Hints:
By secondary structure, the protein is α/β, with parallel strands linked by helices. The protein has helices at 55-73, 81-89, 92-97, 102-122, 126-129, 152-164, 178-192, 208-217, 235-244, 258-266, 282-295, 311-317, 359-364; strands spanning 3-14, 20-21, 26-27, 29-39, 44-51, 138-142, 169-173, 197-201, 223-227, 249-251, 272-273, 324-326, 340-341, 344-345. The strands form 4 sheets. The protein has a 5-stranded parallel sheet. It has a 4-stranded mixed sheet with strand order 12-6-14-13, covered by helices on one side. Strands 1-4-5 form a 3-stranded antiparallel sheet. Helix 1 packs across helix 4 (102-122), helix 2 runs antiparallel to helix 4 (102-122) and helix 10 (258-266) packs parallel to helix 11. The two termini are 33 Å apart. Bound molecules: magnesium ion.
Amino acid sequence: MKITSVDSFILHVPVTGGGIADSTHNISHWGVVGAAIQIEGGLTGYGFTGTHAHLPGDQLITRCIDTCLAPLLLGQDASDITRLWQTIARNPALQWIGRSGITTLAHAAVDVALWDLKAKNAGQPLWKLLGGQVRDKVRAYNTDIGWLNIADEALVAGARAALAQGFTGIKVKVGSTVERDLRRLTAVRHAVGPDITLAIDGNGKWDLATCQRFCAGAQGLDIFWFEEPLWYDDVKGHAQLARSSSIPVALGEQLYTTDAFAEFFAQQAIHWVQPDVTRMAGLTEVLRVCDMASAFRLPVAPHAGDMSQVHVHLSYAHAACAVLEYIPWIQHCFTDPARVVDGYFCLPQLPGAGTTPTVDALSRYRQPVA
Ligand code: MG
């Protein structure tokens, strides 16, 4: 499986309703910034990271793929995934300029492309290559109904519609004012009843005192988890919140390394573990976090920066994964799209990692526009 070419690409795909917001971000498109790796014989693997479709930033990632990572990969055996991971992640010149950030996002795309290649070459869906199916079904929870820019009535209607589609879990964004968010959550809980899991996501906006005030007010709402309540890297604050509230703490979508997760585990600052193959250095490193979560008896709910194209394979194959995020923005861009039926992700059947873009997506959403 000798690597003959490495090519980068940028796709900008519109999100639901023309634009969405959480407490911190406001976006109109999702960025699919990726690598296509070809081996002798022509087989091609695809991998990508996820961005907010900020073209200058996306071009830093593709430049890293093209000029820093491609020379390390060309001529190598694509099936040596662990060795190639080490070659990139522990390259002295690269780790000097970035052990997180752009270099890691670029590495994510390349590592996933190698997994996609390996699975395609074996003629198997990735979950099979990872050791096989460990659960009958992967439960999906719907994030796309709960954005912070959705008005109260539409939020409740969206929650009801998700239930009608078969979802048994939803997530609602918080981080505006405590009063507004409690009002919205109370209305949603009233509308969906007691049997639906209702998670919330603060996207790192509030300080500890605000989070504690919110948690005290949310006691009767049976919140499944409070995601990113505080600034992403604040281990001490999350540990304090985890001790002072009965609402479980979830985080991980902005953590780049196994070491970062290890510190949250060691300080008992996390209950739900949310690594992302598009944020960390690919599936290779996320598998390590999942294994570590197993050792700590903590459940994993992957953050779907890939919109669940890769994570659905992981969730079917790793025992620590308990539930998976559903956001449908980029499904139509892939030859083997992640699909949810009656609230559960379908088991992928085609060889690969689900990361192969359609010809149409590669031309329609390509950036910069020629
Ligand atoms: Mg989140």
